[in-house]
Prior knowledge:
Blueprint: H1 41-45, H2 57-60, H3 64-79
Amino acid sequence: MESQSGGDRGRGGAARRPFFRRRKSCPFSGPNAPKIDYKDVKLLQRFVSERGKIVPSRITAVSTKKQRELSQAIKRARYLGLLPYAVK
């Protein structure tokens, strides 16, 4: 019995090209980027899921610094009743 290494199984033997994903830029960096403000509910809702969770930066492509500002603004808006904590 021959032992298979498993390195090429399930690929059909054809060499695949590596997957290339275009790097997204931060929507809050740039000359005409919107300012993060807890009163701007329409902007904040773009970064909150349907369930009311803050969407992670790996999905929204927001930089680390701006993600912290964004989450703080969302939490502040929730506290003041501008945004819901959870959607049922």
